[in-house]
Amino acid sequence: MAHMQDWPLQVSSPETKLVPLQEPTGNESNLQPATGIAPSHTLITLSTLPTIPVPRPTAVFLSAEVVELVKNEACVRMVRIILNETFFPANEATLNTMAEKALDEAITQSSNAVDLKKWKMQLEGQHEIRRLKGILTRIRNEFKDLALTSVINAYFLDLAINKRGSARAALRIERIHSLLANNSFLHGFMMLIESDGQLRPFNIPFGSNAIINMLEIILSEKQYHCFVFYDGSERWKNCLMNLISFISTTFKWALRRYSMGRLPAAEFVTAENAAFYQAVSRQMYQMSPLAMIYFDGLLVDLRDAFRT
To answer: Where in this chain does the record put each DUF6532 domain (predicted)?
Structure first.
């Protein structure tokens, strides 16, 4: 790796130096007649300015292969942190902490951890943190684009192409308003076996076919199941709940866009969407005991279906 050249630091103010007096010879005396004081030193101003060298930066020698490996591992860990923690960090500082955590975890597991910690503090390491932060934007864009194409078929929002003008989208808009009322687009009926062995429909929280189909696309087709924590802990459940909260947010955003008739441009990262995402996440912990049983069963089924 290239090293910075050491540049001397010029001192801007004159310096002084203590110089011992020479011993007097013969009858010479260094006593001062006026004061009777015999100083042992006198101050002499230096005619030239000294230089102070800048400390040499610590050299870091890492192969390109080692650096690339830690970058790849940091990317994996950043996606896992997003899935496990949040798609809407509170602020830039929180996102920066997530990125640093991903890089620190990747560095810690490397046999070159000592040098990589120094590398992290240099320009390339800081650039890597910025790149890791950008992963969140990429994932959010990918998911919201999927939502725009998914909700049309998932919620039967066909256009009445045989009609003209505003009548063409009237039924679609009416249907969307019905779905958005009380957030009914989130939930769905599933057939469950009762204790008597009979199949009966039950309203399952977040059991909408649209959400389940979207999870299949994300976890199976897009291979995001690789980033879910299947390590014997319960973290897999937190990842799936976080995914459902974010998918729910993208669906509401997409439905509201289609409710305008045409598809207008609309920001996604807004305070309103962040608040809805948080509200959905809270709702998952505030269900009735029976609803929680159904929801836990749904999560287990999702885990088993899309684990590989």
So the answer is: 76-283
Together in a domain, 172 and 297 = yes
Domain count along the chain: 2
Q: What is the DSSP letter of 111?
A: T
Q: Is residue 17 part of a domain?
A: no
pLDDT more than 90, % of the chain: 64
Residue 37: inside a domain, yes or no?
no
Longest dimension (CA), the chain: 126
Write out the DSSP string of 116-161: HHHHHHSHHHHHHHHHHHHHHHHHHHHHHHHHHHHHHHHTT----T
Tens of pLDDT, residues 210-234? 999 999 999 999 999 999 988 888 8
Q: Residue 220: give the domain boundaries.
A: 147-306
Name the more confident of 63 and 142.
Answer: 142
Note the pLDDT of residue 14: 40
Beta-strand relationship, 41-45 and 188-193: unpaired
Tell me the Ramachandran region of residue 54: left when phi exceeds 0, alpha when psi lies from -120 to 50, beta otherwise: beta
CA end-to-end span of the chain, whole Å?
Answer: 41
Residue 270 lies in a domain: yes
Whether the CB-CB separation of 83 and 136 falls below 8 Å is answered with no
